[in-house]
Amino acid sequence: MSRTRRIDLSRRHLTRARSRTAALAGAAALAALALTACGSGSGSAGADDGKPGKGEKAAMAISVNLTGGEVKAGQPVTVTVADGRLARVKMTDGKGGELAGRIAADGRTWTSERNASPGAEYRVEAQNAESQSAEARFKTSAADKVNKVTINPGRVTPVVGVAQPVSIVFDNPVKNKAEVEKHLKVTTSNNTEGSWGWFKDYSGNDRVDWRPKEFWKSGTDVKVEMNLNGVDSGTGGGLFAKDYSTEFKIGKDRRIKVDLDTHKLAVTEGGQVVKTIPISAGTPGGQKASWSGTMVLMAKEGTIRMDSQTVGLGDSYDKMVDYSMRLTWSGMYAHAAPWNSANFGRANSSSGCVGMSDANAAAFYEQVQVGDPFEVVGSGSKGRADIGNGYGEWNLTFDEWKAKSALNGAPQNG
To answer: Among residues 38, 183, 263, 335, which one is catalytic?
Structure first.
């Protein structure tokens, strides 16, 4: 009995071994079939060497002038196709923004209209005329130095007077003025003619303003776009790392004129005199005289402390002054001056400002708006303030102003 049992066990072993062998052979056959199915349609399995088979098109290949993970920003991006013609190129950053560009006439290259910005990740998607596609990615390094701007009028001043220019002051020097100016755009609702002009701000920083040929027309809508992201300021200035914009509207056509000889201030609206105020301006014959020419009401500052030592006039005064309206960075204001009431309408005896009674100052302060032109005429002034000491561009002819543009003095229609 034990011998028969040993034979039976041996047969079971053999049957199991045969079953495993058959299963392995079946799996090998399936694998061979799978390899054949994955091979090129024009050849057998194992014949694919990376080259297109007979009747097939080569894969699309592109190259980008900027590659890698730490690319220097501040230059345009160029995409080149190895063979054929480009039909479409889309370039986006990590935030979903798109960098527009154009395909060259020969179809071989695409170049971005703007520079790659610092600290950004870009994806390039290209398609050729045969509907094939290719993709590339790269990252730009952060800027070693970043330039920034201060813009007037900002969005907090949505309505301004007819003399208000667009004014941009830069934190760092701008050597590449023409390149920066190319990326500044003013758009108006009535195609107002105007031009950019470069000069030094009262702070000593580089500044560029845009003024119309003549005072704005009341009701004009103005939009300013500063597409500066990725633009290089030049030596010592660094790259811009963002775009800027602002919008404002031109309010009532109100103009102020101060006559130093008659000691009166006149307010006109729509060409008609609506108010006349007796005033006392700066004392003639020295540093306490008023500036003359056309200025612009820069800000309504209310009650402020005025200290003569801050404007180089020693200890002439130090007091709180009501209804203060700034005309220059150097400290010329129109304001209430009740301490000088005996001279209103009679004599110019202030330390350079245009003073008036409390009642007249309160009404005038309420009436005027930032951007109103403020013209001072007559004898006894100390001349015109420097162009950067406030908004002095209205003391230049339009031809003189256009000559300050970095783009060959060419005017720009907004």
So the answer is: 335
Candidate CATH numbers 3.40.50.1820, 3.90.1640.30, 2.60.40.3780, 3.80.30.20; the one for domain 62-140: 2.60.40.3780
Tens digits of residue pLDDT in 325-351: 999 999 999 999 999 999 999 999 999
73 backbone dihedrals φ, ψ, rounded to 5° = -80, 180
Is 210 buried (19+), middle (13-18) or exposed (0-12) by CB count in 10 A?
buried
Pick the CATH number of 146-251 from 3.30.365.10, 2.60.40.3710, 3.40.190.10, 3.90.79.10: 2.60.40.3710
- Residue 242: CB atoms within 10 Å: 13
- How many CA within 13 A on the CB side of residue 70? 1
Contacts of 4 (CB under 8 A, 6+ apart): none
Yes or no: say if 195 and 210 are a contact pair by the CB < 8 Å rule.
yes
Neighbours of 254 (CB within 10 A): 21
Give pLDDT tens digits for 82-133: 999 999 999 999 888 899 999 999 999 999 999 999 999 999 999 999 999 9
Residues pairing with 275 in the sheet: 267
Q: What is the pTM of this model?
A: 0.81
Nearest 10 degrees: Cα torsion 350, 352, 357, 360: 160
Look at strands 146-147 and 221-226 and give their pairing: unpaired
Q: Give catalytic status of residue 353 as yes or no.
A: yes
Task: Starting at the earlier edge strand, list the strands of the sheet with 293-296.
Answer: 272-278, 264-269, 254-259, 373-377, 293-296
The SS3 call for residue 273 is strand
